[in-house]
Amino acid sequence: MRNVKWPKISLLAIPTLFLWLKTYIAYKTSFSIPIDNVTQEIILFINPLSFLLIVFGLSMFLKEKNQGRFIFITYSLLSVILYANVVYYREFHDFITLPLLFQTDNLGDLGGSIVTLIHPLDFLYFVDVVILALIMWYKPNFITRPFYSKRVRRAYFLVAFAIAFFNLGLAEAERPQLLTRTFDREILVKNIGTYNYHLYDIFLQSKTSAQRALADGSELADIENYVRANYKEPNPELFGAAKGKNVIVISMESTQSFVMGEKINGEEVTPFLNDFIKDSFYFENFYSQVGQGKTSDSEFLVDNSLYPLSRGAVFFTHSGNEYEAMPEILNENGYFTASLHANNSSFWNRDVMYQSLGYKRFYDVEDYEVPEDETTEWGLLDIPFFEQSIDHLKDMPQPFYAKFITLTNHYPFEIAEEYKWIDEYDSNSGTLNRYFPTVRYTDEAIKQFIEQLKAEGIYEDSIIIIYGDHYGISQNHNKAMSQLLGEEITPYVHTQLQRVPLIIHIPGMEGKTMETVGGQIDLKPTLLHLLGISTKGNIDFGSDLFALDRLDYALQRDGSFVTKDYLYAENVCYSKNTEEPVDISKCQPYIDMTAKELDYSDKIIYGDLLRFYGENASKEQTDKRSNEQ
Ligand code: GP9
Ligand code: MN
């Protein structure tokens, strides 16, 4: 035995092979990346390789004693990045972007939720790091540290780059315009690999930072024309229907439309809302349009009628921008504006962003009593939250615009037994099972709140708007969802699941179920028109949901969209009638329109263009423009 000759293997090959394999295993076990054909599988398999060859190859330029250290540190770092993506993906079905990493304020508060995302077997993700450390420490015989001549190094990198180009070529053939259409991170990762994706993300970050510095407002002309062309006159019957009324907005955490009217073991999930919609306008085809910024993105959409960003949360990345937000407009129209949310004021950077949006007052966790037995891990339960908020409401000068953000129905949807008024669902997903009792709890909280508003005499003087902020059940629970819905979760169904309830209650007006297709982007002009405030000349990407000549349309941040007759998702155009694919030409005009809308909205945010618009254009900037003319 002693004479057996083991094949020698270079120190450089080990980390490359290990991490290549680990990344591919992660793709297959921890991410659900859809693969349609063999080429896609080949791309997925080879995509980590070129990056790893290049990165570990850099060690060849180091002195021998530093090579091992460099390899080990790089290896550990990449392992942590991979694992962080695995954990993030479990909840968000998405990959980490650079701006997210700067949202560390939120991470502290998220503690509990993160712990539930870490699984016991996750240590397996680091077993290879230990093995690598042992190999480096004990330097077994089969490891060689060859001397890398200039020629060897040149050949090595030539091969590495050739593999990179081969990968990119295959990907580009599979998915044209891969890098210019980066709405969908899953497609990016699938084609260029996690590590190259992060490099690309860094490139995007530096590009967006430069965009503000270079912007001078000249880009606004096209955008203004576009927005003006899409402006819709308000419905004369409803314009000013709630003039001078208080505005009560309730953002329902993680509440999707599929819970409305749904029963678990014969019990309604939302008994109160099911009733309340009978005296309200209820929009069945209203879509959440958020990106990675979740609740904060929904607030951004509603207050600005601009789209949130494709990466990160605009509440963090662009809180210093100039906006023409709803609170600001309402302040000018004699309203007192406030947001009420029993969480830390810094969560989602709200304390900073709310100032830019014009909120006069933010009632945060400091304004509430939070007894231990009335909390979930996310903080104060919704019933005491609303109960205590009534006192705040009574203190506000009228008319007010008050936004309430609920919290109890938040992942992981855990709540004390005594508040579980309906049974859990029964499926393979604990998340979906627990979801229904917490939705039911929030329904009860809103019911009690409305009763209190009536008792305080506020109800009759207020218009009440209730909407869901975003999905609560991610794609990771598709199997359980399809059990619930009794159908497969195709891209069509997935897009339809982005519907959230929208309820608009106007005192003295009868209820009506509305089929209008719209999204959170449309709330600002809708509400302002109900209050009798004109929106002509505003840079709003949405339009009044009640407008008579409205275009039925709602897009998603990943480039998919829904119209009256069609739905477009993952490059397929579906007929809404049959839910079957139809010729892409049916969707083409809207594909182009969607790209344009997102591009224009992004330009405004990245370039901070509203500082050049209307009254915001300060003298200095006006001078800057006139000097250039
Ligand atoms: C946090 C709450 C939840 O304050 O709004 O945020 P989410 O995690 O849903 O974006
Ligand atoms: Mn939320």
Automatic annotation (TrEMBL):
It is found in: Cell membrane. Its main location: membrane. GO terms for cellular component: plasma membrane. GO terms for molecular function: metal ion binding; transferase activity. Keywords: Cell membrane, Manganese, Membrane, Metal-binding, Transferase, Transmembrane, Transmembrane helix. It holds the Pfam family Sulfatase. Substrate binds at residue 410. Residues 245-533 form the Sulfatase N-terminal domain. It comes from the Bacteria. The keyword Transferase applies. The keyword Transit peptide does not apply. This is Phosphoglycerol transferase MdoB-like AlkP superfamily enzyme. It comes from Bacillus oleivorans.
